[in-house]
Design goal:
Layout (H helix, E strand, L loop, with lengths): L1 E6 L4 E6 L29 E4 L22 E3 L3 E6 L13 H19 L6 E8 L11 E7 L4 H17 L3 H12 L3 E4 L3 E4 L10 E5 L11 H22 L5 E6 L14 E5 L2 E3 L2 E2 L4 H6 L8 H10 L5
Antiparallel strand pairs: 1-2, 1-4, 3-5, 5-7, 6-7, 6-11, 8-9, 9-10, 10-12, 11-12, 13-14
Helix pairs in contact: 1-4, 4-6
Length: 318
Amino acid sequence: MSELRFDPVLREWVIVATSRQERPLLPKDVCPFCPGSGKVPDSYDVYIYPNDFSSLSIPPPEITVEVGELRKAREASGVCDVVLYSPDHNLTFADLPVAQIEKIVRLWKKRFEELARMKEIKYVFIFENKGEVIGVTIPHPHGQIYAFPFIPPRPRKELNSSWEYWRRKKKCLFCKIMKDEKKNRKRLVTENSSFISFVPFYAKYPYEVHIYSKRHIQTLLQFTEEEEKDLAHILKVITKKYDNLFGFSSPYMMVLHQAPVDNKDYSYYHFHIEFYPPYRAKDKLKFRASCETGAGTFINDTSPEEKAEEMRRAKGEE
């Protein structure tokens, strides 16, 4: 069963997908993403693999649940892809050469364009979950793409705040944040010609890093060839810094925030990437406990300025 159910209290859609309970957990015999598994080509470089346990599909299954005034449901239309970064099972994103990451960026861009053309799709969400503590079930280097039939709550909140700031100031909220961080410099981590990274003033996770495009653009489709290369380089640097921070392969969530693909004007929005690493110290995890999950208010028991300094000092190059 896979369907969307509406939460009338928080006014947001929840995906109910019972088939995901059958996902393999860290298989030790055969990795489905490795060449020779019979699941992927015997030879590939970077590759889009349809998720075997997709919670969204086209065409979607029919709704079977009983609905009512406060029990709204709709078909779970959409696409769930797996993005295979490399045929080498033992690598992570940080291990990849910059040239390989460039191929991933171009694949993201190509797949974004394909999904954006589908009439059922309103938002394309590109992300990576890395590490067992994040819930990864297959350790082969990969990310994912979910193409939603609605705009998810977090991007929608960003869109609303961006629009409100644009309406009042006639300026981009993200451009203003970027300008302030460049001026202050206490929370900057690294930058190149096209992108800047920093631990935000309002970071929720101790080592949370955001990457902003210096040019005011909304999606990957607007990237120049130079920006593709620069994004690959800064992603390599940041992920390598995470690994060198504590001396082990650091888990994280990496999410790309882009404008929706519902043919509306989002010129007030700004492309960016956010990293949420769960470690707050070498041997301590930052948990989303009751205050964060139940109240929605994060408690960051570290200083963003201090953590940005640690990230700056961490080696980010080979």
